[in-house]
Specification:
This protein is α+β, with helices and mostly antiparallel strands and 120 residues long. It contains two helices and six strands, in the order αβββαβββ.
Length: 120
């Protein structure tokens, strides 16, 4: 069995978040799936401000919404200059059989993603 790489886990989290955003009626102005490049999604919806969505895949399924507060302050300044809102999506991913095991390719996994945290 092949363990998912950090980039593959990130892509999986992006797919989960992207589906939710589409269900909410957003259009994607830009998508960036590279690790540590932000934002992952730039959203557009007529009559609303631009929204930057930051996606973080984590194996912490108890608290997937934890993020680096200091880094977020820097990003908020960038968003303010663009007159954009900032949403954070923490996506917990874990092996469905045991959270002690890594997530394997083509094997069941558990997803912990409730909603977006509206930062700005």
């Amino acid at each position: 069995m092949q363990i998912l790489t950090e980039q593959e886990l990130h892509n999986l989290a992006m797919n989960i978040v992207g589906k939710r955003l589409q269900e909410m009626g957003y259009e994607f102005q830009a998508i960036n799936s590279q690790l540590k490049r932000h934002p992952q999604f730039v959203l557009f919806k007529k009559g609303e401000p631009t929204i930057f969505v930051l996606v973080k895949a984590t194996q912490n399924i108890q608290n997937p919404e934890e993020y680096d507060v200091l880094w977020m302050e820097t990003f908020k300044e960038h968003a303010k200059k663009q007159n954009a809102k900032v949403w954070f999506a923490g996506v917990g991913l874990a092996n469905a059989e045991s959270v002690e095991n890594p997530v394997f390719k083509d094997q069941p996994y558990y997803v912990a993603f409730e909603d977006f945290i509206k930062i700005l």
